[in-house]
Amino acid sequence: MSPSSFNPRLSRRDAERLVAEALDSAALEREPAERLAAQLTGPEVFEPLLEAAFESKKRIKGDVVTVSKNIFIPLTNLCRDRCGYCTFAKLDDDPDAKTYSLDEVGEAVRGGLRSGCIEALFCLGDKPEKAYRSYRKFLSSRGLSTTAEYLTQACQLAFELGMLPHTNAGILSAEQMQALKPWNASMGLMLETTSQRLRLQGGPHQIAPDKDPVVRLQMHNEAGEIGIPFTSGLLLGIGETSEECVDTLLAIRDVSRRWGHIQEVIVQPFHPKPDTPMEFVLPISDEHVAAWVALTRLIMGPEMNVQAPPNLAPEVLELLLRSGLNDWGGVSPVTVDFINPEAPWPALRELDRRTRAAGQKLVERLPVYPEHLIGRPEFFDPQVREALHCLADDAGYARPDRPHAGVEAA
Question: Is residue 319 classed exposed, middle or buried when 0-12, 13-18 and 19+ CB atoms within 10 A define those classes?
Fold first, then answer.
């Protein structure tokens, strides 16, 4: 049952009071968050919400909006999960199935370095060795038994060539994350949702054991215990309720407060894709995305880094800039977004122009934000910390005078 069943519809004055209280306390709690979420894009709520979120952002982040110049390395697109919205995952007999060799990883990294990229974003399917005999043979021929071991080799190669890995590899054990830590600046796992309902028959996560929210939250906590700068986030439009979205954000906030390692929260809209079970699901509106960015800002508070991918809402970057975000995420001048290949990255020059036109300033960052790089040095192995500081300026952002820093692919 929705909050509106218990509470009368919010007036604009009610909405202004709730967001003002959130600004004063630097945190929006469950009951007012659910009341606002129940009518997010209504005229009574939308503008007060965005105004308060933007004010919250300015209190700590000022006029800075960051971006990470990266390359995208999809180490393998084999995956044991079958999410109802995904086109990234392939079966092993699909002609588009691909696992990168280490030589191909090295080639991609060298190309990224020539274009001034700092971050090597490793994404891959979840535990393909559990599903595919051919892939188990691939690993065995290299003396390996798990994808995580192969990923560690790839991250080590990228790091030794001069790029800073950020790994999104699905579910990893504490031991696997510990093995990756000497070669990774940061890691991540989108929580997506805390809804167990979406794992039931007919739901988008029915055939996706690695989308169990309990398992995903466990990895969030283990990453915190190990001390790994970590990315999480919310996936919008896959059938969740507004209350479930609020619950997801509060779960991320709880983990962050416990360990202090959550460095960014992504608000990502689902895009329907052809030839998937959810291809005919209507996408959520851009206004809805902006409203959830704003609510995320007020729930997470002014210190959190809130991100919205610019390639997933390219027509409304100005609206997103009013909603309290302070980061565009990784944008590549070299590779496509392999998760959403239909959504091209904006050119970095254009992203800079539109950010400045909105009265804000685009600043390049590393895969680690300044507050973790400078404020939590214990989060990094010595060799990673040294590499980060070689690429960072005194404020903890990316050094503009590094080789190839100004190069952008056409």
Answer: middle
Architecture of domain 58-391: Alpha-Beta Barrel (3.20)
Q: Are 70 and 121 in contact (CB under 8 A)?
A: yes
Residues forming beta bridges with residue 188, ordered by sequence position: 231
Give me the pLDDT at residue 403, please.
73
pTM: 0.95
DSSP 233: E
Name the residue among 81, 89, 128 with its Cα closest to residue 273. 89
The 10s digit of each residue's pLDDT in 204-231 is 999 999 999 999 999 999 999 999 999 9
Exposure of 141 by Cβ count < 10 A (0-12 exposed, 13-18 middle, 19+ buried)?
exposed
The pLDDT of residue 408 is: 55
User: What are the sequence ranges of the domains in the chain?
Assistant: 58-391
Rounded Cα distance, 33 and 242, in Å: 9
7 — pLDDT class (breaks 50, 70, 90): low
Q: What pLDDT is recorded for position 83?
A: 97
* Distance from C-alpha of 35 to C-alpha of 54, rounded to nearest angstrom: 20
In one letter, which amino acid is 157? L
